[in-house]
Amino acid sequence: MNKAWWKESVIYQIYPRSFNDSNGDGIGDINGITEKIPYLSELGIDVIWLSPVYKSPNDDNGYDISDYRDIMDEFGTMLDFDIMLSKAHGHGIKIMMDLVVNHSSDEHDWFRESRKSKDNPYRDYYIWKKTDNGEPPTNWGAAFGGSVWEYDEQTSEFYLHLFSKKQPDLNWENPVLRNEVYEMMRFWLDKGIDGFRMDVINFISKDSSYPQGEIREGHKYGDGSKYYMNGPRIHEFLQEMNKEVLSQYDTITVGEMPGVTVEEGKLYTGDDRSELNMVFHFEHVGLGDGRFGKWDPHPWRLTELKEIFNKWQKGLEKGGWNSLYWSNHDQPRAISRWGNDSEEHRVTSGKMIATCLHLMQGTPYIYQGEEIGMTNVKFDNINDYRDIETLNAYRDLTSDSLTHDKIFKGIHERSRDNARTPVQWDASPNAGFTDGTPWINVNPNYEKINAEAAVKDEDSIFHYYKKLIQLRKQNEVIVYGTFDLVMEGDEQIFAFTRTLGGDQLLVICNFSNCTPIFKLPGNVRYTSKQLLISNLTADENEPIEEFPLMPYEARVYRLKK
Ligand code: NOJ
């Protein structure tokens, strides 16, 4: 397998709005990030993925960009950015920027020009269609509710927006637009940033015949996704971007790709394909989705989760590469989703899920606050939520499809705002995030769960993450070893081996609050063993052929042949 620094790295995602506020306006900012670089350096991470800091009217918290070469006022200035970048580099930490080029803001100059007239030079930067009957060109529904088409009176045509109407889709069929994007990417790389996380990048090539989507039961709009996910020219566009930009720098790239399959994943990340380093797939985070997606969640089984990971681990084993994540700014908190956030099990289960993820093959991502075991929040009032997706879903679904209580269950389990409450730095008011009024309330559990307490406590989740990161640096098998499931059909235990030459690790994780029995299969042989890390005190000399696990217990052994 080819070695690469981005395979050996651990990445930490910062959602700047909620990270750390340095000037008391209630909104996290770039200087707030700079202040915390030593904290991240102590944790041991290698790369920061910075969610968008570009100029934006914030319809979707920065994922609607009005100037790709400038910084959002609330976040600071370009000078602040340069200082942050150099401080991060000074600590050996790289910066990966978010690249949001499936769409821009409707307040971007390109769009302001584009909508002026049909012969404006910027007209073809976006996707405009006219219809004879005044109906939208297709029945597709947008991610944040309503149609994907917005009628614009000025030129009597519709423009496409897969997200909100303030996020018009860019027209990648237009080579002039593509070059603008490449130039902008060079601008940031020349400044010294180290790579890009690319927002819904597998949506940029649309089926230009724009067929109708299938309307599923209980839904008002059609599902157009198969006409824009992994579309006809996607690989061509990414290869062009690679040739024009990425190949000329030493970068790290990850493509966010809803609806990507393993077969497509191999093409996007293949060593010989010159596209991207890795992709974020959505298969595990969609587990338990109901008829209305995440808003009516159902229980899921551990075998389903294992099947998904196994498929991706084995699928990309030769020549591709995986990204590994439990959470991000669009997902609930990792412990609440995959572990158990009760007082009794929070710390143990937080360490267990971290063990499971960091010991698989791929580049692990830590979402801000995950390293201190932050949990979902349960606001009772819809007015306490800020996320456009949550607010629109509440509006649309409570009137048509789900009861208030049902949708609130969905919001408490899966709303994006679970991940967007401010990082809990200490036990002072507003968790030390701000001296002002935070843009979204802090989780009331901050007096107990906060970074200051976690750093002081040697037994905390923070110190456990530190150890996992160090182990990765000391053991090549964690990065490059092959993955093989053990006890595949078990509904409580997620166990696997990692093998590189003569080196083998055995990873055992109990995802339940019961005490299931681990049984070592006959084909895993060893003469002696060493306990590398565990989240509870385990007796090093205990035989591992058959033994009971404590609730949420995790152990990693090195097996010597
Ligand atoms: C994916 C981003 O992660 C999400 O936060 C955003 O709302 C959409 N893409 C649209 O940019």
Automatic annotation (TrEMBL):
Keyword set, alphabetical order: Cytoplasm, Glycosidase, Hydrolase
Q: Where in the cell is it found?
A: Cytoplasm
Q: Which GO molecular function annotation, any one, does this entry have? A: alpha-amylase activity
Coiled coil, from the record: none
Enzymatic reactions: Hydrolysis of (1->6)-alpha-D-glucosidic linkages in some oligosaccharides produced from starch and glycogen by alpha-amylase, and in isomaltose
What Pfam families is this protein classified in? Alpha-amylase
Q: Which domain of life is it from?
A: Bacteria
Which processes are annotated in GO (biological process)? oligosaccharide catabolic process
Q: What is its EC number?
A: 3.2.1.10
Designated name of the protein = oligo-1,6-glucosidase
Among InterPro entries, the record links this protein to: GH, GH13_cat_dom, Glyco_hydro_b, O16G_dom_2
> A single GO CC term, please?
cytoplasm
Name the family. Belongs to the glycosyl hydrolase 13 family.
- Provide the Glycosyl hydrolase family 13 catalytic domain boundaries: 13-420
